[in-house]
Amino acid sequence: MNYLENYYNHYDEEGRLLYRHGQVEYITTQKYIHRCIEACSAGKILEVGAGTGRYSVSLAREGFQVTAVELVAHNIDQLKRKLDGSEKITVLQGNALDLSAFDDGSFDITLVLGPMYHLYSKQEKVQALSEAVRVTKQGGYILVAYCMNEPTVVQYVFGENTLSEHLDSHMLTEDWHCISEPKDLFELIRTEEIAELDAEVPVERIKLVATDGATNYMRPVIDSMTDEVFGKWLEYHLAICERQDLIGASHHTLDILKKNAGK
């Protein structure tokens, strides 16, 4: 069993998204998914790295034809337990680096909301992104989620007093970029690196969005908010989540790309 399988076999991903701080990321991501659905009149959606199906199952229940590809068997089991048989969903075990099971241009929208968290080289990231673009129709959308570098340095390295550990293990570059290996589980990135990945594939960027913004810096505060105050926090967050001066400070971002005709 590898590090990734062991992690997800014991981690409550579904529970994370049910906490208020997790809902911010989910609500924001769903907002932009639906904008893309409306923009291209999407019917067929692929989610690569579907996890336990938080997005795939929801979209299938809305009537969309969804294909969910997930690497970890435990997550697939969790996803399938949610289904009642009425959903138009196909669930497959597979890898973001190889979508050869699907023809070119098979889907209106392709979601890559988890794989980039666990790919550790630029080559792997480009390969995953290229495959997602390949299977998307001309004029379709590819939505890719990333974990960002700076929040980890601020909140974990300094906030949780792990600086000595990281320095001793040579896990930080001179310009304070975290160095990750599979045993560390999560790969962290900066906005300029996302732009470099986009330049490798035939797409145009529509938006780069901060899906949780400042939320994870103040989890206890967010989770204890009244419904009214939490509603206002969401209102504030959604009003500023496209501000590019704030993107790199968000724990998670969503890169929204369009595959144009002729590319």
Determine the N-to-C terminus distance.
Answer: 40 Å
CATH hierarchy: architecture: 3-Layer(aba) Sandwich
CATH topology: Rossmann fold
Helix-strand pattern, N to C? HHHEHEHEEHEHHHEHHE
Number of helices: 11
Helix/strand-derived class?
Answer: alpha/beta
**Average of the residue pLDDT scores:** 92
Number of domains: 1
Largest sheet: 7 strands, mixed
> What's the CATH H-level homologous superfamily?
Vaccinia Virus protein VP39
Query: Per the principal axes of the C-alpha atoms, what is the gross shape?
Result: globular
Please state how the strands of the largest beta sheet are arranged side by side.
Answer: 3-2-1-4-5-7-6
Low-pLDDT runs of 5+ residues are none
Report Rg: 18 Å
Task: Name the beta content range.
Answer: 15-25%
Q: Residue share in helices?
A: 40-55%
Quaternary structure annotation: single chain
Structure report:
This protein is α/β, with parallel strands linked by helices and 263 residues long. It has one domain: Vaccinia Virus protein VP39 (Rossmann fold, 3-Layer(aba) Sandwich), CATH 3.40.50. The chain has helices at 3-10, 13-18, 20-40, 54-61, 73-81, 122-134, 149-158, 163-168, 191-198, 219-223, 227-240; strands spanning 44-48, 65-70, 89-93, 107-112, 136-147, 204-210, 252-258. The protein has a 7-stranded mixed sheet with strand order 3-2-1-4-5-7-6. The chain is globular.
